[in-house]
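ok so for the tutorial part 2 we go from a plain amino acid sequence to predicted structure tokens. step 1 is just haveing the sequence, like this:
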Amino acid sequence: MAPDETMIHVRFAPDGTVTEIGARPAGLAAQDWFNLLSAVAGQYFAALSGGRGLFRLPPAALGAVQAKLDEAA
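step 2 — the prediction. this is what the tokens look like for a chain of 73 residues:
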């Protein structure tokens, strides 16, 4: 892991929906935040065991996600 990466942890329900996700903006549902991250920076997601996942976002990807959030606001 690079020292400047932002890590966002995800926890899934048995049906595949997102139950918990880190760094979620206020007013945005967990599933919607996951969908946005996946659309903009899906290549940085890794599925883990036990219904978990992890986004490892470099600064450029985090900036792209923020731009998409600003665009939607």
